[in-house]
Design a protein that fits this description.
Blueprint lengths: L5 H9 L21 E6 L6 H6 L3 E4 L4 E4 L1 E5 L7 E6 L4 H7 L2 H6 L1 E4 L2 H21 L17 H14 L4 E8 L5 E7 L11 E6 L7 H16 L4 H9 L1 E5 L4 H9 L54 H12 L4 E9 L3 E4 L11 H19 L4 E4 H4 L7 H8 L3 E7 L17 H22 L3
Parallel strand pairs: 9-10, 9-11, 11-14, 12-13
Antiparallel strand pairs: 1-5, 1-6, 2-3, 4-5, 7-8, 8-10, 12-14
Helix pairs in contact: 7-14, 8-14, 11-14
The chain binds 2-acetamido-2-deoxy-beta-D-glucopyranose (2 copies) and zinc ion (ZN).
Length: 456
């Protein structure tokens, strides 16, 4: 928060894309001491969420710094009609005054000091990275530890090794270049063979929102799982024979690295546009797509966490993804965008509460996915359209893909669910495996459904 835009100017000169060691001094990290996480039942007749959102960032013109006042972590949905909201200490009184009487009567604090959660996670990561550094560099993709949160460079190194050591199954693809100049990669996975014919595709992206660390971890988990289990487990084998898989595990590497080194709660990209605003950096990459950009549920304030950007595709990450999806993927059948948290499978539309023409089929596939998840780990995921389950959001990738005619589309909110005492964005790495297993099961179920309905 305080350091959002002061630090990067200094850092960028010395701290380039080659850095992947976590800084152990941690002196420059944004500090959320005194911030508390609250939950309340949302009164459906109120416009409380919109009101709260409008206060999210305070800009101090004299010190030229911005400070986060309020941050919505979990939006209310039909199944869970409550909100999780992070509140700065000085904003607590004002926050309470914005709730209706009914909402206030259900208000409870679910985390007393978010900074201690962040510190605990950081200590564990430093421990881990010291341990990893003592070991030699990765020599084989098998050695890549999917049960840990990795730097962007480590993710790329894994994909590079995999494509070099499994060239008959894995091709590394470059999809975009970020604002800070990082190359954004993904992998295309197909059954063993040199240049097999193009098939319908399953597309997965993750990391759109920087702080949702479980999402890229699950993306990487799935890459490793598909390659290792091809020919061993029936469902993985069948779905790889039917589909080309494109997995882009980290599409917002600037934001991700920033969330590792400067501000654990960073969500946006790291683009700078001094014409628009000199102090506030980045846009919400999932409000920046061009289809119905800037309609319901978009924010025009550059400091906001859900700022839609100065124009459609203003973010080079999103422009690159759009070009890649449009020109490189000929027959997209399934599109999944991984986020956290809340355990939801969200389908289009986001910009309107009208139903898509293939609404029922999308819901049927989501139901199969939720059953497969339940069968795999016993965990419950809910499903529905974005506007049905929550508030409208426009400029999202799933609306773009729906407009493009992709039949099966889900924005996934991974674990945890918004239960009391949840870890929110700080899900310990010990949960990656189960979250990855259940997502793999969900994707296989959606693939199987598509094969049946579309006669692939
Ligand atoms: C910066 O914002 C201005 C004003 O909205 C816009 O015209 C311009 O294209 C933006 N620049 C970039 C690089 O996005
Ligand atoms: C549940 O899981 C078992 C074992 O993993 C599998 O054989 C079965 O087909 C699954 N059932 C469903 C409905 O997914
Ligand atoms: Zn997200």
């Amino acid at each position: 928060m305080w350091l959002h835009f002061l630090v990067p100017l200094i850092l960028l000169t010395t701290w380039t894309v080659t850095c992947h060691v976590i800084d152990e001094t941690a002196g420059k990290m944004a500090d959320y001491s005194g911030y508390t996480l609250h939950r309340f039942q949302v009164d459906t007749t109120s416009n409380t969420m919109e009101k709260l959102e409008s206060y999210d960032m305070e800009l101090d013109q004299t010190t030229q710094t911005a400070r986060l006042l309020i941050d919505i972590w979990a939006e209310p949905s039909k199944q869970n009609p409550h909100a999780d909201v992070l509140v700065a200490p000085e904003f607590l009184q004002k926050f309470k005054s914005l709730l209706t009487g009914a909402e206030l009567s259900t208000l409870k604090m679910i985390e007393g000091d978010i900074q201690s959660q962040i510190n605990a996670e950081r200590r564990a990561m430093i421990h881990n990275s010291v341990r990893r550094r003592r070991k030699r560099a990765l020599r084989s993709w098998h050695e890549f530890d999917t049960n840990a949160y990795h730097s962007y460079d480590e993710m790329v190194e894994f994909m590079r090794l995999l494509s070099e050591q499994k060239p008959d199954m894995v091709e590394m693809v470059k999809v975009a270049t970020s604002s800070e100049g990082r190359s954004i990669y993904g992998v295309k996975i197909h059954p063993p063979g040199i240049s097999p014919p193009e098939k319908p595709s399953i597309i997965v992206d993750a990391g759109v929102h920087a702080r949702e660390w479980i999402a890229p971890a699950v993306g990487l988990f799935m890459i490793k799982k598909i390659v290792s289990e091809y020919g061993k487990t029936a469902e993985v084998t069948a779905n790889l024979q039917k589909f080309d898989w494109y997995i882009m595990p980290q599409v917002n590497p600037d934001g991700y690295e920033y969330s590792r080194t400067n501000d654990r709660l960073w969500r946006k990209t790291r683009s700078k546009n001094v014409t628009v605003n000199r102090w506030c950096v980045g846009a919400d990459a999932n409000r920046n797509w061009g289809y119905r950009w800037g309609e319901a549920g978009a924010n025009r304030t550059p400091c906001s966490n859900i700022y839609m950007g100065s124009h459609p595709y203003s973010e080079p990450e999103i422009k690159g993804l759009k070009e890649f999806f449009t020109w490189q993927i000929t027959n997209p059948m399934v599109y999944i965008s991984l986020h956290s948290y809340g355990q939801l499978l969200l389908s289009p539309w986001g910009y309107t509460n009208e139903r898509t023409e293939n609404y029922q089929d999308q819901q049927n596939a989501a139901k199969e996915a939720a059953l497969a998840i339940k069968n795999t780990t016993g965990v419950s995921y809910s499903y529905g359209t974005i506007s049905e389950m929550m508030y409208p959001a426009s400029g999202t990738s799933i609306d773009f893909m729906q407009h493009r005619g992709v039949p099966y589309i889900y924005g996934v909110e991974l674990r945890p669910t918004d239960n009391p005492n949840s870890f929110a964005f700080n899900l310990p790495p010990s949960y990656i495996r189960a979250t990855g297993d259940e997502m793999m099961a969900a994707l296989n179920a959606i693939g199987t459904h598509a094969v049946k309905i579309k006669r692939l």
